[in-house]
Specification:
about 290 residues; alpha+beta; Gyrase A, domain 2; Elongation Factor Tu (Ef-tu), domain 3; six-stranded mixed sheet; six-stranded antiparallel sheet; about 35% strand; globular
Length: about 290
């Protein structure tokens, strides 16, 4: 990512959670600790099923008296409905502002050139009253600017940024082992902790209860985490099967089958090695080892 590159993520949507009970409402349902989200700090979190299975992930950003949830746009309506189911009698307003606000990605170097910035995951500053923060999952993903569409192009001009092809950003995210596209294909097929949310700073094991907390804590405490979501790279051929094989044994399944594929892999089986080549139908693949593993 070059210092003056910017990626406009039209694949992201934004919900705004506001009201007297907004903080308590989010604290009771999401995997991370909302108490740590301030004007200076944003976080990564998820909403799980009661069984601890993945449903949605998002970044939580303080905005005025409420919070933005920065989520994959194709999931935004479902997330909106799910949050309203949990709202009950809480004094909470949930707004879909995806048509008014947008997410733009800046390089880490550009972020650190701005006044009051810090080289710290999730660290948040204001630029013309809009939040810019280093990605709380990985600083290698750069910084995120959440901004009103009407102000976008003037801010980009003032920052001397050049709009670049989003393909480059999503390839970077894939190489870092962070799934951001077609995450709907993970829903109810994988435990949240298997999505590497602990390593990506998306789960707080010290906070109180949240939806799916019991199974998440059990897998963690009893050391039963033996499968993880990993990015895969196609070396030869085309994927025409979702089963990943090694020495005639199934070691995983492809869950996201787009141009940046991800698979649920049994990583602790005998002879597992990231340097190995694996078979998937007629194709030969590699499993990408992320920096944090």
């Amino acid at each position: 990512m070059k210092i003056n590159d910017v990626y406009i993520l039209e694949d992201r949507g934004l919900l705004y959670i506001n009201g007297d009970d907004a903080r308590e409402f989010l604290q009771n349902i999401i995997t991370n600790n909302i108490e740590n989200v301030t004007e200076d700090k944003s976080c990564f979190a998820a909403l799980l099923s009661p069984q601890g299975k993945y449903l949605y992930d998002f970044i939580v950003v303080k905005h005025k008296s409420g919070y933005f949830l920065d989520c994959e746009k194709q999931n935004i309506e479902e997330l909106y409905k799910q949050l309203n189911l949990y709202k009950l009698k809480s004094k909470v307003e949930i707004l879909n502002l995806s048509n008014e606000f947008v997410v733009a990605i800046l390089s880490k170097e550009k972020f650190l050139s701005l006044d009051n910035s810090k080289d710290e995951k999730g660290f948040t500053i204001k630029y013309r009253e809009d939040s810019i923060f280093l990605d709380p999952r990985s600083k290698d993903l750069g910084a995120r600017l959440v901004i009103n569409l009407e102000k976008l192009h003037l801010s980009l001009k003032k920052l001397e940024l050049k709009i670049s092809d989003n393909k480059n950003y999503h390839e970077l995210s894939h190489n870092l082992g962070i799934a951001q596209i077609d995450t709907k294909k993970l829903q109810n097929k994988i435990f949240g902790i298997e999505c590497n949310f602990e390593e990506l700073n998306g789960i707080d094991f010290k906070k109180g209860c949240y939806v799916g907390q019991e199974n998440t804590a059990r897998i963690k405490l009893k050391e039963k985490l033996n499968k993880r979501l990993f990015a895969i790279k196609i070396l030869e051929g085309k994927i025409n099967s979702n089963e990943i094989m090694f020495e005639d044994k199934e070691i995983g399944k492809i869950l996201i089958d787009n141009q940046n594929p991800f698979a649920l892999i049994k990583f602790n089986i005998e002879n597992f090695n990231f340097d190995n080549n694996f078979k998937c139908g007629d194709s030969k693949i590699k499993i990408i080892k992320p920096k944090w593993f």
